[in-house]
Amino acid sequence: MILKAIAKWWAGSKLEEETAHTQALVRRLETAQAEANRRVNAKKAKYSRQIKAHQEQRNKELKQYLDFMNGQLEITGTYLHLSVLIRGCILIFAIKKSISSMKS
């Protein structure tokens, strides 16, 4: 009987030691997991800021390019209008000259 009580006491103390050790491991795992989550969230925020900055820079460059291209289109449009106007003037001049040469 005494031997049984000693075995029960010893087994109980070992169980308590193992339970405490297991709980310590669980707490260490939870701490490591929380730290890993913080690192992941920090990297996520960093990458998000980098992507946003890159997108803003790209949009700025795209706007500059579009402004330049619109300016070129305006210049080309003006040139075409002037070209048509000049050709019309030359045509009118040629017609007037042709009419005046027919009269003479």
Topology summary:
Elements: H1 2-103
Summarize the structure.
With about 100 residues, the protein is mostly helical. Helices cover about 100% and strands about 0% of the residues.
Question: Could you estimate the helical fraction of the residues in percent?
Answer: over 70%
SSE sequence, one letter per element: H
Mean pLDDT, all residues: 90
* Estimated radius of gyration: 44 Å
Could you give a short account of the major beta sheet? none
Percent range for β-strand residues: under 5%
Low-confidence stretches: none
Structural class: mainly alpha
Give the termini separation. 150 Å
Count helical runs: 1
Tell the overall outline: rod-shaped
The strand count comes to: 0
Task: Outline the structure in words.
It is a single chain. With 104 residues, the protein is an all-alpha fold. 98% of the residues lie in helices and 0% in strands. The radius of gyration is 44 Å and the shape is rod-shaped. The mean pLDDT is 90.
Summary keywords:
mainly alpha, 1 helix
